[in-house]
Amino acid sequence: MQIRKNIKNVSLLVVSAGIIFLNSCAKKNDAFVNRKVSFNADWSFHLNDSIIDKDTIGTATKWRILDVPHDWGIEGKFDEKSPAGYGGGSLNGGLGWYKKTFKVAAEDSTKITSITFDGVYKNSEVWVNGHYLGKRPNGYIGFQYEISKYLNYGEKNNEIIVKVDNSKQPNSRWYSGSGIFRNVWIETTDKLHVGQWGTYITTPKVTAEKASVNIETTIKNQYQESKKATVTTTLYKEDKKVTSVTQDITINANGNQTVKQSAEVENPALWSDENPELYTAVTEISLDDKIIDQYKTTFGIRDFKFDLNKGFILNGKQVKIKGVCMHHDLGPLGSAINTRALERQLEILKEMGVNGIRTSHNPPAPELLQLCDKMGFIVMDEAFDMWKQNKTKYDYANDWDKWHKQDLIDQLLRDRNHASIFMWSIGNEIPEQWNETGIEIAKELAAITRQYDKTRPITAGMNPPVNMNIDAVTLQFEKKNVSINPLAGSGVLDLIGYNYAHQTFEHHLKNFPKTPFIATETTSGLQTRGYYDAVSDTIKKWPVSWDKKFEGGNPGNTVSAYDQVQTPWGSTHEATWKIIKKHDFLAGMYVWTGFDYIGEPTPYEWPSVSSYFGIVDLAGFPKDVYYMYQSEWTNKTVLHVFPHWNWKAGQTVDVWAYYNNADEVELFVNGKSVGKRAKKGEDLHVMWRIPFEAGTLKAISRKGGKVVLEKEIKTAGNPSQLKLTADRNTIKADKNDLSFVTVDILDANGTIAPNANNEINFSLKGSGKIVGVCSGDPVSHEPYKGTKHTALAGKCLVIVQSGDKSGRLELTAKANGLKQATIVITTE
């Protein structure tokens, strides 16, 4: 095979920086030795760009040095003719190669060395020193190869080559990204060690006074003789030891053994969405009184159930799941994972009141789950977007028969200790849900899931669970002429997962008298941040039907930011939440979507390239409806008034206010009251329809006649200056940390210019680089990997990444006719 010949040739010719891995001896009192190290730095990358080198690499191949995680798709140009289509973000895939040379210490020759990839999109194949390790088609699941027997130890170089084939398009309904887009690790262990994803921790009995903790640990013995060892598991709360259990074992040569241990925790600190308390289990294997392996597992102690009548019960308390669905891309950073970028998304969502994340529609990066554990999110961990039947021509359905079992097992083993995960989803809007084939597949997937984790319920996103004409729902229920989705009625699922069909929610107990409810996907409201239609109280359904091309819309492919545009299968944001909040038996919802994402620009096609669904735009700037949720989902006192106050003289403008903790809101134009408004019945906002008059729009919320909050919006003059605001002014000098800098275009008085769309140029001094620019405009074709970008509604974002040196980063923004701005970010 030509590929192997080329790999051997490259192996002899490539010289690059190597990394020596020194496996430190474990200290008896050090409970947190990490046995794996990052393998992200100093890869070489080549993207095939011609027919000649389509499936080969050789001595003439040109490479560039980079660090992974890496997404080559986000570096490309938007292309109307991209085979990925507008659904895939109009960005191209292709076939790419990664290689890296490294050294391994001579003393590690008696140990086990493995390489772990957290995710490679897609069809990855891996070679070490010319030896073929294997292939994984699924881009979202992690995998590991042991490479010990192929390595050179000491001074001689080793080489790893990874082929990534994302050339067959379309294979996704949204932007997937391409490449080694998640972290890579080298793991070095003794031949007697805890296996990959080798612990399983459960808490079968939990009270406020005491919790039982069961630990199952899979031990691997790769010695040629049996071993007598001691396994000790110590539980920690932060750095304080809680309890410890020890067991002596004898394990056969080249054998695996599962060790079961139990402990009790007195007065446990219970994990919840409001107080995400975590524990750490440190498992140590000792031979002859010497610790030879340590394995750390983070877990939480909590008691929960989904109740038919009371919804979701967490630690004895009824909790409404207020969640959002999230795709895996990070906006202008593409699909290359970055922990700080994930953390920022979650911080923004937490501020809104979100307490739940659905990993739509694939296994997420491990870092997302770690953050959800720490920050308090109720996670629906989802496995598949399709089973055997395709949704796009080259998608995972083509690999289903060979790979689905392994991929699901790996996801369960990897994720099942996370405190934040409360349900498994085995599929999203699966075509087979409507027939017997789907029931049989669901039974298989559910059986696999229960084999590896019996502590969490299983669901699927069904569209809808009740097979009906949604427009005639009331009439059908009156006649009791309702048929049940075969998958929903099969008894396979522990939770009935509703995708949309919000009109049926109130009838759930009639249709499914034995199975609790979860709204797996809701709403699909559409907005462009900062754009407003003249009349706000008419509901528009765009497109007319999911299977019909959308004709019409607004100039520039915009969508009104009032909560008035929905898909025909969904609802406005207010409509679904009004139903969910009303009934105890409705456990909660996951809104489509928390953030905008690249691709799937419903209701439009090209030239739109990113979605309109997000409550937060692609740059991370909240849309107005964010504050409706904040007023409903948090205890923060909210008064959000919109739109902006720059219109034509005399133009009629609808002014909305989201508010809470108050009885009413009074609106003033240039000091003159235009009336008080109070929410009535199920209202979630108030509105005034008034003629525009330049000056100041002021809103005052009151409770019991006393002022609660005041907000002003002023008419802006001509754009005059730029303002830079960093989410963090000090970041780590680790080549990974990020500072997200918001650029506001202001008039001479410091008022944001809401219609400004100036092109802004950026420059950076110091040990760092600009890694992303974005305005949140779904129609923008400017590259996200650049140093200039056009603002949307007076705002733009620039993302700065640290280098490896401490010091100052000086970011400057310039635009024609505007006063420039500079901000200093410290790295340390």
UniProtKB/TrEMBL annotation:
<dbReference type="Pfam" id="PF02837">
    <property type="entry name" value="Glyco_hydro_2_N"/>
</dbReference>
<feature type="domain" description="Glycoside hydrolase family 2">
    <location>
        <begin position="722"/>
        <end position="823"/>
    </location>
</feature>
<feature type="domain" description="DUF4982">
    <location>
        <begin position="650"/>
        <end position="708"/>
    </location>
</feature>
<dbReference type="InterPro" id="IPR006102">
    <property type="entry name" value="Ig-like_GH2"/>
</dbReference>
<protein>
    <submittedName>
        <fullName>Glycoside hydrolase family 2 TIM barrel-domain containing protein</fullName>
    </submittedName>
</protein>
<keyword id="KW-0378">Hydrolase</keyword>
<dbReference type="InterPro" id="IPR006101">
    <property type="entry name" value="Glyco_hydro_2"/>
</dbReference>
<dbReference type="InterPro" id="IPR013783">
    <property type="entry name" value="Ig-like_fold"/>
</dbReference>
<feature type="domain" description="Glycoside hydrolase family 2 catalytic">
    <location>
        <begin position="310"/>
        <end position="478"/>
    </location>
</feature>
<dbReference type="GO" id="GO:0016787">
    <property type="term" value="F:hydrolase activity"/>
</dbReference>
<comment type="similarity">
    <text>Belongs to the glycosyl hydrolase 2 family.</text>
</comment>
<dbReference type="InterPro" id="IPR040605">
    <property type="entry name" value="Glyco_hydro2_dom5"/>
</dbReference>
<keyword id="KW-0326">Glycosidase</keyword>
<dbReference type="InterPro" id="IPR017853">
    <property type="entry name" value="GH"/>
</dbReference>
<dbReference type="InterPro" id="IPR051913">
    <property type="entry name" value="GH2_Domain-Containing"/>
</dbReference>
<dbReference type="InterPro" id="IPR008964">
    <property type="entry name" value="Invasin/intimin_cell_adhesion"/>
</dbReference>
<dbReference type="InterPro" id="IPR036156">
    <property type="entry name" value="Beta-gal/glucu_dom_sf"/>
</dbReference>
<dbReference type="Pfam" id="PF18565">
    <property type="entry name" value="Glyco_hydro2_C5"/>
</dbReference>
<feature type="domain" description="Glycoside hydrolase family 2 immunoglobulin-like beta-sandwich">
    <location>
        <begin position="201"/>
        <end position="302"/>
    </location>
</feature>
<dbReference type="InterPro" id="IPR006103">
    <property type="entry name" value="Glyco_hydro_2_cat"/>
</dbReference>
<dbReference type="InterPro" id="IPR023232">
    <property type="entry name" value="Glyco_hydro_2_AS"/>
</dbReference>
<feature type="domain" description="Glycosyl hydrolases family 2 sugar binding">
    <location>
        <begin position="94"/>
        <end position="186"/>
    </location>
</feature>
<dbReference type="InterPro" id="IPR006104">
    <property type="entry name" value="Glyco_hydro_2_N"/>
</dbReference>
<dbReference type="Pfam" id="PF02836">
    <property type="entry name" value="Glyco_hydro_2_C"/>
</dbReference>
<dbReference type="Pfam" id="PF16355">
    <property type="entry name" value="DUF4982"/>
</dbReference>
<dbReference type="InterPro" id="IPR032311">
    <property type="entry name" value="DUF4982"/>
</dbReference>
<dbReference type="Pfam" id="PF00703">
    <property type="entry name" value="Glyco_hydro_2"/>
</dbReference>
<dbReference type="InterPro" id="IPR008979">
    <property type="entry name" value="Galactose-bd-like_sf"/>
</dbReference>
